[in-house]
Amino acid sequence: xxxxxxxxxxxxxxxxxxxxxxxxxxxxxxxxxxxxxxxxxxxxxxxxxxxxxxxxxxxxxxxxxxxxxxxxxxxxxxxxxxxxxxxxxxxxxxxxxxxxxxxxxxxxxxxxxxxxxxxxxxxx
Amino acid sequence: xxxxxxxxxxxxxxxxxxxxxxxxxxxxxxxxxxxxxxxxxxxxxxxxxxxxxxxxxxxxxxxxxxxxxxxxxxxxxxxxxxxxxxxxxxxxxxxxxxxxxxxxxxxxxxxxxxxxxxxxxxxxxxxxxxxxxxxxxxxxxxxxxxxxxxxxxxxxxxxxxxxxxxxxxxxxxxxxxxxxxxxxxxxxxxxxxxxxxxxxxxxxxxxxxxxxxxxxxxxxxxxxxxxxxxxxxxxxxxxxxxxxxxxxxxxxxxxxxxxxxxxxxxxxxxxxxxxxxxxxxxxxxxxxxxxxxxxxxxxxxxxxxxxxxxxxxxxxxxxxxxxxxxxxxxxxxxxxxxxxxxxxxxxxxxxxxxxxxxxxxxxxxxxxxxxxxxxxxxxxxxxxxxxxxxxxxxxxxxxxxxxxxxxxxxxxxxxxxxxxxxxxxxxxxxxxxxxxxxxxxxxxxxxxxxxxxxxxxxxxxxxxxxxxxxxxxxxxxxxxxxxxxxxxxxxxxxxxxxxxxxxxxxxxx
Lengths: 124, 509
Fold this sequence. Notes:
The structure holds 2 protein chains of 2 kinds. By secondary structure, chain A is α/β, with parallel strands linked by helices. Helices cover 43% and strands 21% of the residues of chain A.
């Protein structure tokens, strides 16, 4: 059985590298997208097992991308972890309303992100 | 001509008083005329009486003469003379102040009476001589006709006097009537004049007052376009002119004030826009700062977790310092973001059930390393059997962390202690330290933004002075309150009380 695939939708190279490094020694394949539109397209094309979605994205915001993925029956069931840099009261609710499965406030601890990914992938 | 209200009133009252005086004078005049009339009546009456007495005396004289012919005594003859004298006296009385015509008649009476008396003397002598028949004949032939003549004349006088009296009476009645009409007319004229004067005077006051009233009503409504026109050349006219000047001045002031208000509004809008721009800038900056912070803290954590391989012991320390400083920087960024949200009025609480022991534990865990580093005793205790609370647990944790961070920062030795206990419907958190304390005169300022006790404090201890202000805002958003007890040199205890179950977020300005 092939490894589970994680789709990371994040526009900042360093933050992508964190996840890349974090998952390097983990049993997951990492797919990356730079913006919301590319993220939604990748989700449809690759059907990842878990999506990690930044909330501030070019072209299509993380919330809108989450809604788009939830609206498509082919991708509607994929767990989505929404990551925001606002960390404000209410943002978690917005993310959940848009269809997020979990919510992480930036700056997040990589350890915490890994735990969440594992949980979402059903490996915890 | 300018005439004052004073003058107008005085003139009106004087005119009425003058009328009363004229009426008084005329009454006096009429009274004295009536007295004269009555005197004249009395006089006429006396003269009529005198004329009748003269008539009576003459009749008696005739009677005594006739009696003398029968009785033939001296006493009766003397009576004739006596009546003759009485007749003369009366005639003299009438003659006095008699008109010429009457005086002539009286002269004729005197003449005829002289003849009568001569005849009577002859008759008396014949009677004394006993020649009664001759006496009687003389009397009948001469005396009697003479008597008749005198009697006719006296009758004439009586008639004249009676006619005079009648005339006098008619004149008096006429004069009375005349006086009555005159006085009546005068009274009516006075009444009419007084009414007219009162009417004219009062309307000359009422009209300008009514105009002024209407005008002031307009002015009070903010309508300065009208003016009041009062033609009176008295105090009212002056008052109206003054009111017009006042209205013009008010209008100017009103315009100025409106202009000032407009400027203020513009300024206010500009300020609000500037404040909004500042808040947005701060929010954006905070966001832009967080993205690299995420990378810094993330890489640091992964290095320390040895994801990249084993960390040499001499490198671990500096990397831990990077993490500590990064977390500090993150707290500052959070504070700035919170402040911008608070200032923009967009700070909202996220209300859920939360656990008080968890809040205390989170605050303690996040700052334990700092306390250990400074060698401070650091304790936390929560009243047992604390029920589940309802509020924004994250924000309350942030408040407690702020207070504990301050306590650790300002305490060089001793201890920092967190307590949480329930009191009625409230949870009271307290953070006690044995730090530098706060002077009494600064206690009420420390919750303001950017406030520290003085500049040397920020040099020695650092910090932005945002923490307490933000903490206070969150406490108040929960409908709670915050206070401090402190003694310089001995330490401070900060308290905040939060309703165990928050009803809804309270507006904080």
